[in-house]
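CHAIN AND CONFORMATION:

***
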Amino acid sequence: LDMRALPVDLLTISAHKFHGPKGVGALYVRRGMTFPPFIIGGHQERNRRAGTENVAGIIGMGKAAEIALAHLADDSERIGKLRDRFEESLLRSCPETRVNGKQQSRLPNTSNCGPWGWRPSGFRGRFASAWAGSIRKKRSML
């Protein structure tokens, strides 16, 4: 990413989102941005946070990022197919459901669905039925 080209002042990255160690992350701060320290008492992290850096966690995050990048295309396709199967199952079980953004380019691991004319009392049972059908199909794919 060329962060200078993006209109982003602050960006956080959590390692566990790509199978890295839990509790490890990174913070991008655009040059010139200032904010008070989160933990006062030390000069680590350019005076933004006191405490010892988790070097092993940082290395683990870097390695997890390398592995995730190497598998990004294949994983995106596989996960996108699972998302599509879930949505198809949901639409079969609940035809009055709407998949928001279905025709748009979207993340493979994200589904945004909503009721179309449902009463709140019927939502949980209908959604649970579609989810269970999706999980059975997923297990058969493994």
